[in-house]
Fold each of these.
Amino acid sequence: MVRMRRGTRRGRYAALLTAAVAVSLAAAGCTAGPGARQDGRAPEPERSHSAAPASGPVLAVKVDNVRAARPQTGLEAADVVYAEPVEAGLSRLMAIYATELPASVGPVRSARESDLELLGQFDRPVLAFSGAQSKLLPLIDKAPLRAEPPGEDSDAYVRAADRQAPHNLYLRPGKLLPEPSGKAALTAGFTYGKAPAGGRAESSHTVRYPAAGFTFTWSGSRDRWLVSLDGDPARTADGGRLAPATVVVQHVKVRESEFRDFRGSNSPYVESVGSGRAEVLRDGRAYDAAWKRGAAADGTTFTTRDGKPLNFAEGQVWVVFAGDS
């Protein structure tokens, strides 16, 4: 059995997940959270805003990214979306919320070992995830974060009636945090402002994993990069397009971790501490960059060829981790 953890308590995975489903279905009437549509699909986000200094932690949510999980809910409200490789050449997302809390986020999926290193740059973030490999749970216990999987005493998770498990678990962020923490909590090391000189015009950029793909196409009318996942337009729950202002393709070392999934496939480990090259896409242009992160507690800096900070455009940022070849 895979055991689950909420706060510092642990219990058996099956018992917790069963309890979470029972509570969710009874409380939410088989919907995906407050304000959910009658067809059971997750609702259009109801957002709260905060421009004040950080008053709490960021919320990090592990989000499913296979075809059966789309369209995802709540990604458009994230400040940062990280895309990472997982088993079988597939991908998974981690959405970071600081300035807005949508009504619902999901589908929520399980954590990976390299998530702990990635989240070290934030001050005791809240991590929402559906579970983890049993041998990973002690590392999550020791990590400087607040783990929030489904639990007996939590009404933060609900199940959507129109999707099959495991692609139907949704988080109601307002049940974990009373309000957004504010932009000051985004301690990822990014700088925002005027674009650097140079770069090259780029209308589209694709990153490929063995069994997944991300394409970002520039929309001049929206001043945003339109996202496509595995060749299909990435849409919001209400039919809009996912469209970040800045896209970072960060080339990292991807190695085998000490963990495997239930099929025996090794879980890739993304080394987000270190240095390397990157491409930064903003304003319809691509800029070659260098990235550096000295320790897990540090943010990641991106610089131009002359060593100056490479500013991002104001708005949502997507960071896609790509193996360094």
Amino acid sequence: MTADGTLLAISDLHIGHQENREIVARMRPDSPQDWLLVAGDVAERFCDVEWALSVLAERFATVVWVPGNHELWTLPDDPVTLRGVARYDRLIELCRSLGVVTPEDPYPIWHGPGGPMLIAPLFLLYDYTFLPAGVTTKQEALTLAHETGVVCTDEFMLHADPYPCREAWCESRVSAAEQRLQACDPALPKVLVNHYPLVRTPTRILRYPIFAQWCGTERTADWHTRFGVAAVVYGHLHVPRTTWHDGVRFEEVSLGYPRERRVYGAALSRPRQILPDIGPRTEMWFGMGRL
């Protein structure tokens, strides 16, 4: 915490759970200059996403949001019945009405302590390339997932319309983001914000490794070294921790489900400080999620 503000981050708020909703209701900055990065999975229903982002946008100087998979679900009881790209576009409209920065907006620059730093919110999805050991195709991986009973709800609720599949949507998103990052000033260090990890290594800690196929794409494996990245912020795994890959700091910042916090008792209920960097430290673990 500094008088000049702090760059903070959190993800996987899942405010459909009342305990998590109460945490968001109590969440406040320590300084009027604090920024908050929200790395996806705010909620499933559109009205809940709207409530949470409205609360946070009123309190933090700047809120930057990227979608997780849960915001993109189309639930049978959600009055907002849009699917795929249309649902994403509606979420972008909501954010812009609240003054929340999205992956479709100009990348903002953090000028507070630890800056200047370009903040790049990304929406990349996944393409089933994080395959289990010994498996060579998506179909094999999905068959194995169904046999073991570990199947992501995305298979039923996250639609890719008008794309033919989620992999095609991912291909489009990754290509566009890559071109945009290539056009950025290479001398300006960056914080990349994405719901999914940009490298596969963090998924190897998952309780159910087969779930990794819904956790990212191999196409981003070198982005943290190619684009002058100081830190990567992500969520989705429900394994809050700080790790380093090729000397670059990766921060998994998920709040996670109440049952996970009760079991492990160590998940943080406050946003993680990203900048200014708190300095050298060994890998930090805050829990092991995905029960």
